[in-house]
Each structure stands twice: as structure tokens, then as C-alpha cells.
Task: structure prediction
Amino acid sequence: MKHTIIAFLAGSLFAIGLTSSGMTRPEIVQGFLDFFGNWDPRMLFTIAGAVLVYALIFRISKTFTKPIFSDQFMVPTSRIIDRKLIIGSSLFGFGWGLSGYCPAPAIVSGGGGVLPVFVFLLAMLLGMWVFSITDRMFKNSQ
Amino acid sequence: MLETYLWPFLGGCMIGAAAGLLLLFNGRIFGIAGVVGGLVSPVKGDVAWRTAAIAGLVLTGFAAGLFQFDVFTAKAPPPVTLLVVSGLLVGYGSRLGNGCTSGHGVCGVARLSPRSITATIAFTIAGVIAVLILHGLGLMEGA
Result:
């Protein structure tokens, strides 16, 4: 129950951050990616703020033996840079640039009643579902 | 001038704080693609917190819409085909690459994870290319 409350608060604060920083406006995201055109640096400030605060909290978490409400930190430890990582991230980034939406801002915009974003969200869930099916087939064939 | 960059920065700080909250209390990485992906192929005992995190996103968006805060796009929607292709690639790619802008771009980069730094460089370059192509197709006016 405590986990659920924290996750809800984290999700809400995350969404407040996204909306106040302008990340729920795809034109700002695409403006940031429009590096060779009319570049909009605003998103750089958002990334800087998020990375700075999270880096600080991450440093603090290192002094903890375990999270406050859990038995252990579930932080990825893999350092392997493989084709899956690069191809997956590139496909993700290409899709992100096409609409200016990535998962979190799209979900928040959906909640806010931005209707066209539901098309994006349904396609995104379909993409994730296709991945889970193909990934399982691939693992079974190994 | 200050206003233009202050809110993007403060909003970013809130994003970092929210992800930090989930790390300090629950020991979890706040990666939205992973949070949603974990619901597409659910594991027992792991569903409640994921649902709650998404509920927080949805309800905050709902509140912003209800009070008519001017935070959502003012632009005409892109063609449906573009939204479909974009969504499919975002969904499939973020799962194949194990993360999106939040998991890799914020949490991973802040942890100086070499995987996340690589992923962030890859998705940013791909995003820049996508926008270049949109320019070529005449789909970037007014952005």
C-alpha cells in the first residue's frame, strides 16, 4: 500500500513537472529536436533541472542501505551496450521526433483530454505488445 | 528572458524530484516506458504501483484539462498516419532499447550509466533526423 501511494505521488509530481516545463507541448519538444532549423533550447533547461536533481537524490540514496519502504534498490546494473539498445533507442527517438510525444507527456495529455493523442497512445501500446510477443518468441527459440 | 527558461528548468527539477521520490522510497527507476511495459506483460505483485504511477500522470493531466490550464498543445493535430507510426515506434523501440526519455534520458544519465548515455545520444540523433524529414515533407510549419 505504501508503495502504491508513493508511486501515485511520484506520478503526480512528475506530471506537474512535465506540464509546467512545457513538455506536454510537442511543438517545444520538436523545437528542441529542430537543431538544424529554428532551434528551441528550452527543453535543455528541463533536462538539466531533472538530471541535476535526480543525480543529487541518487547520491543521497547511495548512503542508504535500502530504500525507505523496500528491501532493495532495483537499479539496473548492466553495462552492456548492444545492438538491441542502439536500434531500440533509435527507433524510439525517430518515433518521438515524428510527433513530439514520448510516453509520459502523451499519457498526461491523454488525461487532459487532448483527443489526437489517443491515437498515439493506442499505437504505442500496440508497439509494446508486439515487442512482448516477439521477445517471447525469440527467447523460446533460443 | 528569465521567465522563458525558468519554468522549463523548475519543471525539470520537479521531474527529477518525482523520479527521486520513487527511488528513495520504493527503490525503483521512474521509466515510463518500463512502467507501462510492465503492465502490457504483467507480473504478479508488480501491478499496483505501476497502475498508481500512471494514475498520477492521468489524473494530473485531467486536473490540468479541467481547470483549463494552458499547458497542452495549441497546434492542429498531425496527420493520423504520422501519429500511428510515431506511437508504434515509440512503443516498440522503448521496449527493445529498455527505456525512454525518463528512464534513460533522466534517471540513467544522472546515474552516469554508459548504457543510458548511449541510448540518449541515439534517440536524440534519431529525433533530430525525424524532424529534418518532417521539414522535408513540409510538416514542420508553425512548430
User: Anything to note?
Assistant: Residues 74-143 of chain B form one domain. Chain B has a mean pLDDT of 93.
